[in-house]
Specification:
The protein is of the alpha+beta class. About 20% of the residues lie in helices and about 25% in strands. The strands form 4 sheets. It has a 3-stranded antiparallel β-sheet with strand order 3-9-8, with no helix packed on it. Strands 4-6-5 form a 3-stranded antiparallel β-sheet, with helices on one face. It binds zinc ion (ZN).
Length: about 180
């Protein structure tokens, strides 16, 4: 059964493939309203086009805010060498897609636009996820709640997982050593 969340002011979901619902992971999310074939361009990640200087300024501002509030949302995507997209606007429903370590979608750039596409066949009613692809700079501020079997515990791009796993293993050793001493 479709059970869309009421939209906030200025919100839209321009894709026929999905709608906004309450997520089991975090806040609201996007859910498939019909079976989605693998490879489908599901929804465009739209927003304000920013030059790099303004983009960096906003990025740091939000990182500071995230540290204070624990809100991991940054929403700024690299578009090309000159511009980024700030998706933190109500008309960008794709900003609500949650991160997962075992995602069913991916974000990619096509013709200077950012799209969320289906990595595999997605069944009607499934929540949509992609990997946010964060680096490890402040991974401890971004714990992952995806609950998948593959979950590495933090929001990080898959290319960073080997390094992340090493860091986490080293941490466990240190805390074990500490508890042995006490
Ligand atoms: Zn996870």
């Amino acid at each position: 059964m479709s059970n869309p969340e009421p939209l906030l002011e200025g919100e839209r979901c321009d894709s026929a493939w999905c709608e906004i619902r309450r997520s089991g992971i975090h806040g609201r999310g996007l859910f498939a309203t019909r079976d989605i074939p693998k490879g489908t361009c599901i929804i465009e990640y739209i927003g304000e086009k920013l030059g790099k200087e303004e983009s960096n300024r906003r990025g740091w501002e939000r990182i500071d805010f995230a540290k204070k509030t624990g809100d991991a949302a940054v929403y700024i995507f690299t578009l090309n060498d000159d511009f980024d997209i700030d998706g933190n606007v109500p008309w960008n429903a794709a900003r609500l897609i949650n991160h997962s370590c075992a995602p069913n979608c991916e974000a990619y750039i096509d013709n200077d636009a950012i799209w969320i596409g289906a990595l595999r066949k997605i069944k009607k009613g499934e929540e949509l996820y992609y990997n946010y692809g964060f680096d490890l700079e402040s991974y401890e501020d971004h714990p992952c709640l995806c609950g998948s079997k593959k979950c590495v515990g933090y929001i990080a791009g898959e290319e960073f997982w080997p390094k992340l796993k090493k860091k986490l293993a080293a941490k466990t050793k240190t805390s074990k050593a500490r508890s042995r001493k006490s």
